[in-house]
Amino acid sequence: MTELTYVDLQRPAIGSGEYREVAPGVYWATMPMGGKIEAINVWALRDGENWAVVDTGFRNEESISAWRTMTATLFDGGRPTRIFCTHMHPDHTGLAGWFVAEFGSRLWMSRLEYFVLRMLAADLGKAAPEEAVRFYLSTGFSEASIDRFKSRFGQFAHMLHPLPNAFHALEHGDRVAIGGDEWHVIVGKGHSPEHACLYNPQKKLLISGDQVLPTISSNVSVYPYEPDADPLTLWLASLQRLRELVPNDVMVLPAHGQPFYGLHQRIGHLIGGHERSLTTLAEALEVPMRPADLYSVLFRREITPGLEIMAVGETLAHLACLRARGLASVKYDAQGIQWWSRR
């Protein structure tokens, strides 16, 4: 892989309210995630006397405190009037409702992301549906794994401030005026339903969210609410389109990691990595296998209990892509278990 060129700025201290100016009127801060991925990058864009915010961090007191600090320092009397969320995952949307309640902001995100977010938030306090239990049993989950899934079902909403009941829908191709700049909305699919990147041709900036990250590949998974989905095919096509629409000389502002140059090289590396994984997976299907039997083929680390949902979702996404290419097929046995084989 051609080495990326990273922007020579020290990362703002996580959850401190500290910020860095990456381009005129565009500021970078970080909010805590508390896991292997330490932080999410959030962006504040000067918008006349006020501000637009892109992504928010999880719902937690440390992030709220950091935003209050930025309100008193960076915003200096202005207020965040628009909150752009690249997609519905809670590290990106966790405080969207807080901004709306605190400042009267308006949430802007793509339509399908908003409604899937509302759907998942509504699972709080509910038992895991039988369709979801059957879905994970069919992949080869053990009873212990099913019990863990049931115990964690509906926890998504705990990471979110109560969501606003109104929003402004973003669509692919939209041109959004922020300050004196025009930002182009580029929608990608696969990592989430309608992930919105924001491209500023004047300043040569791309806020890439999770669509393109500098050191890790975004999770692309099949979930029980859409068991026949083929998200990896959609994600690979979205990366190709992003490479066609955005020139290579932009500064990429990702959701995780350091801002960098080398968008096209990174896209090529991401596509190439998944194509190699697809080839390896197809070769492993000389004998029928369950999705849960294939972790060692796709992943270089042990899949611990906390990673099972993500691992099986990624595995199913690769299998669905192979099936769409006519390279794999699936049969269900009498117990409803999936057995995948090479065609």
Descriptive tags:
343 residues, alpha/beta, Metallo-beta-lactamase, Chain A, five-stranded mixed beta sheet, 10 helices
Our count of helices gives 10
Instruction: Assign the CATH class.
Output: Alpha Beta
Alpha carbon gap, first and last residue: 32 Å
CATH topology: Metallo-beta-lactamase, Chain A
Q: Approximately what portion of the residues adopt beta-strand conformation?
A: 15-25%
pLDDT averaged residue by residue: 96
Oligomeric grouping of the chains: single chain
CATH architecture: 4-Layer Sandwich
**Biggest β-sheet: count, sense, barrel?**
7 strands, mixed
State Rg.
21 Å
Class by helix and strand content?
alpha/beta
Shape: globular
Walk across the major sheet and give the strand order: 2-3-4-5-6-7-8
Helix-strand string? EEEEEHEHHEHHHEEEEEHEEHHHEE
| Domains (count) | 1
**Fourth-tier CATH superfamily name:** Ribonuclease Z/Hydroxyacylglutathione hydrolase-like
The helical percent reads 25-40%
Could you outline the blueprint of secondary structure elements for this entry?
Elements (H helix, E strand, L loop, with lengths): L4 E2 L13 E4 L2 E7 L6 E9 L2 E5 L6 H12 L7 E5 L5 H4 L2 H8 L2 E5 H11 L8 H9 L4 H10 L15 E3 L4 E4 L2 E8 L6 E6 L4 E5 L21 H15 L5 E4 L5 E2 L1 H22 L10 H4 L9 H17 L3 E5 L5 E5 L1
Parallel strand pairs: 5-6, 6-7, 7-8, 12-13
Antiparallel strand pairs: 1-14, 2-3, 3-4, 4-5, 9-10, 10-11, 11-12, 15-16
Helix pairs in contact: 7-8, 8-10
